[in-house]
Amino acid sequence: MARRSHALLCRIAALAVAQVICATMALAQETWTYRGKTVTIFVATSPGGGYDFYGRLLARHIGKYLPGNPDIIVKNMPGAGGVVLANYLAQRAAKDGTEIATFEHGTAFAALLNGTPIQFDPVKLGWLGSLDQFVPIVAVWHTVPIYSADDLLTRPMTVGSSGAGSTTAGYPNSLNAILGTKIKVISGYAGSAEINLAIERGELDGIASWCWSCAKSEKSDWISGNKPRVVLQLAPIGDPELNRKGIPTVLDYAHTDEQRQMLNMVFASVAMSRPFAAPPDLPPGRLELLRSAFAKAAADPDMIADAVGKGFELKYVPPLLIENLLAKAYGASDALIRKVRAAYSGKQ
């Protein structure tokens, strides 16, 4: 796992270098200025959550890296797990670099995993990068007699879900269909806060979608009190802290090439956990200008301190990595996509 993590970091570094070279060449031809203009960052969730935090975090810092130092405002546009905003970005947003958006990490994969009708091409969006790369987990309450990922294959476990199509249902459904786990999904919970309360009350055994960094920031008392037992990491590359504890990743339980391909598609989006994008077909050089400003803001010590001071992590993911993830996923065979979609829906 350590070698895979090192390889990923090398790949990210190489992609970042390539991105800087492309941006430098394009910016040499770009004469656009934001002076006197306002840039809007749209957020696909309601105010107060993690995605909203990262949208407002970027708004506080990216302006000084855009020529003309424009005003930056944030507008929330929730709906359909981010699809409403992604449709707006592709169909109606201004294509001059003054409107960008952040939506849920799974939005770009909605058509693949759920068959959700969309009016945007994920591959053609102007990806700016991501500000985090979190790792979802399977965590069991400390009173439940499930002690390892092996136990998930033989012992039943109940988890809460906010509804069909969400990761709270799709992730455990996929584990059941692909690996043979015995997880029962209970729907009807509004969100993670309600699911966590049900776990504390003993109504649920645990959760199979919550990210590790989210657990640490939102339920620090749980972590310090060893109340949840993490048994599996739901990402191709594990979190360094959990890797050191010997917690396996989901790919460690894949026994066939098809299982690995399916799991990689289901969990691919976690590599772009807090993604930002511009509309497609921006003027030449404009996308590179935005990408350069985004990368500089992500490396800004003030922005990093701003995030950490509020209990959040900041991990820059370059846009080329996102583009490669999407190209690989949408380039999969129709047969594989059908199998993954059936697994994610729980209908396999």
Can you characterise this structure?
Helices cover 44% and strands 15% of the residues. It has 348 residues and is α/β, with parallel strands linked by helices. A 5-stranded mixed β-sheet has the order 2-1-3-10-4, sandwiched between helices. The chain has a 3-stranded antiparallel β-sheet with strand order 8-5-9. A two-stranded parallel ribbon has the order 6-7. Helix 2 (50-61) links the parallel strand 1 (38-43) and strand 2. Helix 6 packs antiparallel against helix 11 (257-266). The longest helix is centred in the N-terminal third of the chain and has 26 residues, at 2-27. The radius of gyration is 20 Å and the shape is globular. The two termini are 30 Å apart.
Shape, per Cα inertia axes: globular
Number of E-type strands:
10
Physical arrangement of strands within the biggest beta sheet: 2-1-3-10-4
CATH topology of the largest domain: D-Maltodextrin-Binding Protein, domain 2
Structural classification: alpha/beta
Number of helical stretches of at least 4 residues: 15
State the distance separating the first and last CA atoms. Answer: 30 Å
CATH C-level class of the largest domain = Alpha Beta
Identify the CATH homologous superfamily of the largest domain.
Bordetella uptake gene, domain 1
Please state roughly what percent of the residues sit in beta strands, choosing from under 5%, 5-15%, 15-25%, 25-35%, 35-45% or over 45%.
5-15%
Radius of gyration: 20 Å
Order of helices and strands: HEHEHEHEEHEHEHEHHEHHEHHHH
> What's the number of structural domains?
2
Rounded mean pLDDT score: 91
Any idea what the CATH architecture of the largest domain is? Answer: 3-Layer(aba) Sandwich
The biggest beta sheet reads: 5 strands, mixed
List unreliable stretches of 5+ residues.
1-6, 24-29
Helix content: 40-55%
